[in-house]
Amino acid sequence: xxxxxxxxxxxxxxxxxxxxxxxxxxxxxxxxxxxxxxxxxxxxxxxxxxxxxxxxxxxxxxxxxxxxxxxxxxxxxxxxxxxxxxxxxxxxxxxxxxxxxxxxxxxxxxxxxxxxxxxxxxxxxxxxxxxxxxxxxxxxxxxxxxxxxxxxxxxxxxxxxxxxxxxxxxxxxxxxxxxxxxxxxxxxxxxxxxxxxxxxxxxxxxxxxxxxxxxxxxxxxxxxxxxxxxxxxxxxxxxxxxxxxxxxxxxxxxxxxxxxxxxxxxxxxxxxxxxxxxxxxxxxxxxxxxxxxxxxxxxxxxxxxxxxxxxxxxxxxxxxxxxxxxxxxxxxxxxxxxxxxxxxxxxxxxxxxxxxxxxxxxxxxxxxxxxxxxxxxxxxxxxxxxxxxxxxxxxxxxxxxxxxxxxxxxxxxxxxxxxxxxxxxxxxxxxxxxxxxxxxxxxxxxxxxxxxxxxxxxxxxxxxxxxxxxxxxxxxxxxxxxxxxxxxxxxxxxxxxxxxxxxxxxxxxxx
Length: 511
Ligand code: ADP
Prior knowledge:
The chain is of the alpha/beta class. It contains 13 helices and 17 strands. The protein has a five-stranded parallel β-sheet, sandwiched between helices. Strand 6 and strand 7 (166-169) form a beta hairpin. Helix 9 packs antiparallel against helix 10, helix 10 runs parallel beside helix 13 and helix 11 packs parallel to helix 12. The longest helix has 38 residues, at 115-152. The two termini are 60 Å apart. The relative contact order is 0.06. Bound molecules: adenosine-5'-diphosphate (ADP).
């Protein structure tokens, strides 16, 4: 970046002879310039860098380092390479002039000076230089501004030349693609893209070469091989001041992976839902049809059985619709916003009480080990549903005369503490927790199913004769997580299962 320029144009007069300096000073005084002086070669070099004059008036015969060498050195220094240099020579010194031109002198003035000519030359060259520097400054500050915007942008920006060779990546592009600037620069754009985009690249560039902007969605690959979805815009990069001279391409990449993932999950959910809804519905329709057609030919018992089947499947359909609605409410966070502090232990007892008829019907034994008061914060009906789902499953998936244990405690987990009796305890962050555990000695779950239990519509195949939607545990987990909680399972096939969930505990001081 160029230094701030003063308002006056500055001329550096470099001459080893006092007389030479005085003469030039007298001629240029009162012309509106700021005059600076250098007495020898080294001083000239230092002052040029220090004051960046608009013009250097350089005597060819400088003590220390002569004028030609000074000129050569300045032309090689990018900071001042463009500064105009007028060399002061003697009238008849053609060799010096030729040499001067070779080392990059812009113009010559000769002794003895013609006052009018000297002033005119100095004015023109100084003024031109001033204009050039101002333009450079403006351009530079515009460039700085653009650079700052690009660096701050959340979208990835990649600039390539006409042949697709990468010239620039902003930090967001580095983050998105996983390639460092140094790795990507100079390589072909293809480097940043996965197989799919690679194939489409030529097609995209063909469109952009005609001057149009290409917009679309692509699937790309990061450096580590991970695939991501991106919204891509590729626009032509035109030479400045032109409307059709294509010099490269500007690509803007936005990571839309979360959006796409949610979209895919929603599509899958919708297709699963319609499948799950259709199954009981087609059974109901079929039985209804048969009942209608064969009514007179069926005996009383048969008819009753068919009506009961219709009721059973209608009930299943009703369960399914309730679960789907519950899930969709959680998905859009529309579940009741009522939040309050409540006693989790009391809630566990209440929910268990409600299920007692079912427990008795199956001749199970339900035991409690529940602390006196375990305070948590949240939506009481949502947490009630969590407890209900876990107890219901324990009752459902345990053969008659089973044993179910329901525990509710409060505890503080210390850093690094482990406890194998509570599933998920190891992964739990340290701190104060309220916890509920439901243990049964039921049919248990094979190890291969455990990672999928909390997925939507996941049911263990061998247990499909037991009524269910495969949504209960998915809902349960979402509700627990909505409360900043955690849920986990431990089970062994044929031995029984243990589900536990943890919610942040409200400790006494906070109450
Ligand atoms: P469902 O409506 O099928 O009960 P859930 O999401 O509640 O759906 O449970 C998913 C699957 O997990 C069930 O189909 C069942 O196979 C298994 N499961 C859940 N709880 C238990 C349990 N306590 N014992 C054995 N298996 C269980």
